[in-house]
Amino acid sequence: MIDAARRQIVTAGIKMVEQKMIAGSWGNLSIKIDTSRCAITPSGRSYDSLNTEDIVVVDMQGNKIKGALIPSSETPLHLAIYNAIPAAQAIVHTHSVYASACAALHRSIPALIEDLVQIIGGSVDVAEYALPGTKVLAENALIALQNKKAALLANHGVVCWGISLETALMTAEIVEKAAHIYCICETMGGAKLLPESDIAIMHDFYKQHYSKRQIEKGDDVLE
């Protein structure tokens, strides 16, 4: 289980660099191995140079179990989400450009496109600012998540969770796409938002049907 989680994180890190979701060693990824352990990217290491042994394994209190490197400085954020949201099995934290622009503006990404509301259930809200790597940041992120799968971190970036690393990455990609569309719309008079009643219908359909089809097809497996 540990080796598989480490391999998935290395592969996903390369994918995030290729998609320009992160740069250098910024951002971080993790997978919940079981109820007592998670695998997470190390601090200060570029993603294109990572190997499986570099991925650190910690317990749910943040104590290192396996790995020679220091775990990500955002480990408290990841652990807070795992401990508060049992359904979360993987987390990605990105610094993608348009979502980070919204985070710098302290402006939520509104419910303006269908795939966003299907997976998120509404807007992507902004967590109140706190210093990176702190317990306060983790607490603020949980407030902003409010049963959603993504939140903006003020003046920082985005955090997303999923039932697998693949679904967490997909959520981050959709959030960035929606943020890009939102920024474009703001230069053209503003977006027309989806009706609240339709948001509820689409989100419920995704939870009850479409997400299960993705699992059946194996779309949530990242190798």
TrEMBL record:
Q: Does the keyword Methyltransferase apply?
A: no
Alphabetical keyword list? Lyase, Metal-binding
Q: Which InterPro entries match?
A: Aldolase_class_II_sugar_metab, Aldolase_II/adducin_N, Aldolase_II/adducin_N_sf
> Which molecular function GO terms apply here?
aldehyde-lyase activity; metal ion binding
Any one GO BP annotation for this protein: pentose catabolic process
Phosphoprotein found in the keyword field: no
Q: Which segments constitute the Class II aldolase/adducin N-terminal domain?
A: 7-183
Per the record, what is one GO cellular component? cytosol
Q: What is this protein called?
A: Class II aldolase/adducin family protein
Source species of the chain: Phascolarctobacterium faecium
